[in-house]
Structures are given as C-alpha cells and as structure tokens.
Fold this sequence. Notes:
The protein is an all-alpha fold. The chain has one domain: Globins (Globin-like). It is 63% helix and 0% strand. It is built from five helices and no strands. The chain has helices at residues 8-22, 29-36, 43-61, 82-99, 102-122. The chain is globular and about 35 Å long. 18% of the residues are buried.
Amino acid sequence: xxxxxxxxxxxxxxxxxxxxxxxxxxxxxxxxxxxxxxxxxxxxxxxxxxxxxxxxxxxxxxxxxxxxxxxxxxxxxxxxxxxxxxxxxxxxxxxxxxxxxxxxxxxxxxxxxxxxxxxxxxxxxxxxx
Length: 129
C-alpha cells in the first residue's frame, strides 16, 4: 500500500531502497562507493542516510532536523555529467513511486529535479558538456 503521508518512517524506507538501487547501477554507484563504501549499514552510510532522512523530511514537510547546505559535500565527488544526474533522477522517481501515492511522489520528484538542476549549475554542467 502506498503511503499517503510523509513521515520519517516512509522517508527512511524510500531512501534505503533508493540507495540500494543506486549501488547496483553501473553509472552512479562508483560515486557513492568511492565516497561512502559499498555497505549501506556502514558508518559513513549510516551518517549520510541519517542526514538524508532529515533533509528530505525538511524538504517535504518543513519539519526536521536538517539545517545544512546540501551542495558542498557533493562538490568533490569527481567529474559528473548530465547523464549522471538523469540516472539519479530516474531511480529517484521509481523509488518515490514505489512508496508514495502519485501526488506525493510527484512533489518529491519536482523537488529532486530542482535540486539536480541546482547541483548541475553549481558544478557548471550543462547539456553541451
């Protein structure tokens, strides 16, 4: 049954599935493995996922403990391309649609598109790159 509300439990479930899928994707997994390792239960991942839980809860509900800036930790992950972000977005859309009713999944996805565009702009990545 799809969730019709956004709370910590649903965000956590969705994000764990999303990142599990990302670690299986040949295009994007190297970025995450290089930075955080292969084990989603490991220390670096545990910290990162906790931060992401707080980030997405804040993005979607306005509530939560996230108070940082999402871009800086991503600035030094290595060269990325529009395809990198398109792949991340594709997986994110699938994950949100697996866990949330369409209205909520669409809100997640719209926010993720904005975030990806901001990151690409900050990294000076464009369609011509």
